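Honest question from a wet-lab person: if I give you the sequences of every part of a complex, can you actually get the arrangement of the whole thing, not just the pieces? Trying it with mine:
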Amino acid sequence: MKIIKGDKVIYKFVNEMKHIDRVSPKEKFLVETNDCFFQQVQDENMVLSELDYDCLNPATGPIFVEGCQAGDILKVKIHDIEVEDKGVTMTFPGEGVLGDQATKSKVRVLPIEDGQAIFNGIKIPIVPMIGVIGVAPNKEDGEWPTATPWKHGGNMDTTDIKAGSTLYFPVHQDGALLALGDCHAAMGDGEICFTGLEIPAKVTLEVDIIKNKTIKWPLVETKDATMVIASGDDVDQAIYEASSQGVKHLKDGLNFEWEDAYMLASLVMDLKISQVVDPKMTVRAAIPKDILSTEDLIMGIK
Amino acid sequence: MKIIKGDKVIYKFVNEMKHIDRVSPKEKFLVETNDCFFQQVQDENMVLSELDYDCLNPATGPIFVEGCQAGDILKVKIHDIEVEDKGVTMTFPGEGVLGDQATKSKVRVLPIEDGQAIFNGIKIPIVPMIGVIGVAPNKEDGEWPTATPWKHGGNMDTTDIKAGSTLYFPVHQDGALLALGDCHAAMGDGEICFTGLEIPAKVTLEVDIIKNKTIKWPLVETKDATMVIASGDDVDQAIYEASSQGVKHLKDGLNFEWEDAYMLASLVMDLKISQVVDPKMTVRAAIPKDILSTEDLIMGIK
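Yes, you can. This is the full assembly:
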């Protein structure tokens, strides 16, 4: 299996990027990812002002996918996320949802044993996930630092981006130009203090291409649902975008009148918070596969 | 078992209300609830301008709980929610998350067969829930129409308020003065078009009292988590309130430093959207019982 090392990284997603490696559809490959601090934080006594802030959120890549072209959808199946045996979390005054209540910085380095991170004796089951994953954005959309989520993916910080899930991205450049990093061993929906359990990882992926179909926002397919992952300047804006695309998929996939699709969504589509702390906020709208299969959803795209 | 009929209802929660019946702790009782339109909508051709808008969101009650006093917590176990064999959903231009995209009103009356509502041939599994449930609010908090969620409960429209769950309310009046209505046979988190599958129901409850403990916002206990249910003028404000109380419960229940509780919450506490369409927005913060049991959370309240 091809291994793509974690030493070649990007800090922003742009339409034109030089790829560092190439993979083919249906080939399994492994990507080594760095934690969001590029492993600078190893010690709870680390002085945070000494951090090199130019090295935050490195994403390994870009990876060129053979045969993938602008106007296609890139499908990325996550087979496995293997994390190291310790992760880092931290808080700063002013950061996160309750930044106004935080009076001091604090760093915690948590050991991971038998699938559990230990925090002051409390055992946290780990569910590794990818924080940053994306492709080359649309040229008109400009440049996106890896810290920010948008239509190309990026820092979506979505707990469902985990082993067993499949992502779908709109492709705007030959080869799609996939890059990823910033895995978390654990994170609650919201990521309220602005860090998860930050950790380097080895991610096993497989890509495929859906020709001549496009989507506005990335999708993530889980065991039970297909979710639109949308971002906005606040949570309300992200909710509007995720809802709008979710209703559109129900309308087109089921051949419903728009009003019926809107009511159906109100009955079956869960809005879920991904993260509320990155420069933009992210929400996902989950369409149950029992109501509309992922295949029929993709087929129905107009 | 005592049956409390659905003909005596309130349309606002206030601190002083005349109770219509009395129940005792650990007594099971059944409450008949009306749908949010007081059953005015029976027909898909109903002219919505003919609706009596003074009869929306009736809540059966208030019910006096023997031995319950201001400064206690009222515990309400939901044993069962039995719904009728059809439910109503509708959309209006301007209403809900995508109100700007809705071009006409539409009413759907959906039959329910074998635990599934049928919508244009699509089968929706029903999971009945209570939309409006609450107690007398704090006198200083004023009057709350049943359509609005707040610290006393009210129109929280939270899918986890279902059979098997237990609610906890802060008590501000002798007897607590419980009232409920507005059940839904099905609803997605968010309730984006502003209706669920609205339906009359028979709700079997059991109450209990936790003496001399108080909470700022209601809690709902499910199989796996204890959730703070908080509301605000927008989703961001609701997120702040739910997060703030969630971190406080982790801090007090686990005897953690505040910063550690904040980081732990970021790793394990899910923010979940309840509804984003009522006059205020509602979010819940879910603390896993594996991390802190409901009993220890309640014991830890300071």
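Two things worth pointing out. The longest helix of chain A spans residues 235-254. Chain A is about 10% helix and 40% strand.
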